Each structure stands twice: as structure tokens, then as C-alpha cells.
Amino acid sequence: MRFAMRISLAFGVLMLVSKMTAYFMTGSAAILSDAAESVIHVVAVAFAAFSLRLSTKPAAGEFLYGYERITFFSAGFEGAMIVLAAIFILYAAIEKWMAGLQLENLGTGTLVVLAAGVLNAGLGWYLIRTGRRSHSLILEANGRHVLTDSWTSFGVVTGLGLVMLTSWKPFDPLLAIAVAINILWAGGHLVWRSAVGLLDHSDPSVGKEIRGKLDAICSELGLQYHGVRYRTTGYRQIIEVHLLFPHAMAVGEAHRLATVLEERLPQELSVPAEVFTHLESAEDRAAVHAKEHYTGKPE
User: Which domain does 161 fall in, by range?
Assistant: First the structure.
């Protein structure tokens, strides 16, 4: 994961230098919009690299559950940076249009941007694939940002191609505005994913898989369960489940069966997981929970 992030940062700097060179050669608002998105990308990747390193540190000190949830903050930061870039692009495109369009060396500038777009498309695909394989939201968010950057470049190439084909210069700022709207949507989506992650949103498809595996394992072990809750840290699912045992069963045997479930369930899920169980008596569970609800404290 760290290797992939280092590649992303190196490519980000290379793309930024290339696009700024193309902008100074052409004076194109569309290329400026692409370069602005690359500035934001470099800043966002630097923060994502820090977040990735921190998220893999073991729990310690006052952070007893580790640092994994910084993945959501990192994705939100990257999304916010994309939104900021979109706002700047809109402003720059409209300002240059009103001031009068002066375009030069469009052929060379277009080739530079096209090459950058192709490289970014390949990099984005690699980052998303690596992020999904390692269950890293940080890498996946970074990959989507890179893909957004590549679509921005392809949009710019289209606009400059239309300018060269028709000699109608407003195609340049119009495509810049269209690009800004597109990346505004992508940035907003990342911010939304960050927000629902921080608010412990439970994915229904993940819940269906968890309950399906629980049904199979509990049936095999002769157990009943209730009170399933789960949330993601960005890397793994944290699952809580209440297990019901006969009142007469020895605590040692009940604990052994609970441990078997805690070990087997993560092995059978399609995502990394950690399971916590709470042991209850099947016969008097309802009465005990009713007392807790009535008094506000366990009895």
C-alpha cells in the first residue's frame, strides 16, 4: 500500500509540472483547470500518505482502538480538496473568458495533456485495484481522485481539439466549466463517503453476509444469537453479537463455543473482521433486559 502511495505522489508531481508547462505554452483556461486539479491532487496525496502510515500503526497509549478510522477523514479531506479545485476552475475559466481568450501552441499543449491523461488513467486503475484488494479506503479514494484527474485531462483534450478544428475559442472555457462540474460531483461523493463512515453507517449488503454466516455457524454449534451490530474502520468490520446459552451450561464451555465463533466468522467473510461476543442465558434473557431497560442499570 505504501509503495502504491509513493508512486501516486511521484506521478502527481510529474503531472503537475507537465500541465503547468502546457499552460504557460498555450494560455488555455482548460489546461489551467487541469493543472489546478493536479495541485490539489499533490496536496491530497501527501496527506493521504501520512494517513496511510498512521492508519497501519498498532493501538497504543490513549488510542486503544488504533488509528484506522483516519481513513474516513483522509477520504473527506481529499474530497474537499477536489471541491476546492472545482471552484477555482470555475472562477478561472469565467475570468479568462471575460478577459479575452489568447491561445497559442495548442497542438503541443494538447499532446502533453493527452499523455498525462493516459498515464493517470493507468495509475488510477492500479490504485483502486490495490485499495480494494487491501481494503484500504485511503488508496481507493486516491485512485478515484487520479481517475478524476484523467477524465479532466481527456475533457481538456476534447475542448482544445474542438478549438483547433473550428477556431471557436469559447470551446476552451466551456470545456473547463464542464470539467469543473464533473470533478465537483466526484469530490462531493468522496465527502459523503467520509461522512457516512465517520457516522458508522452500516452497509446492508455486509449485514446480510454477516447474518448468513452467523446462521450457518450457530446452527452447526447449536447456538442462538441476537443483537448483531457492525461498523467499518475503513480496513475491517467490527462485529458485536450476543450469544444465547442454556442456563445450566458451564461458563467454560460457553466461552469455548463463543471463541470458536469469534475465530471462524472472520475466516468466512469476504472482508477482514474482528468479532466480539456477549454471553447470555437463553432462559432469562428477556427478563434481565427488561429490568435493565426499566431501571437504567443492570441488576
Answer: 2-198
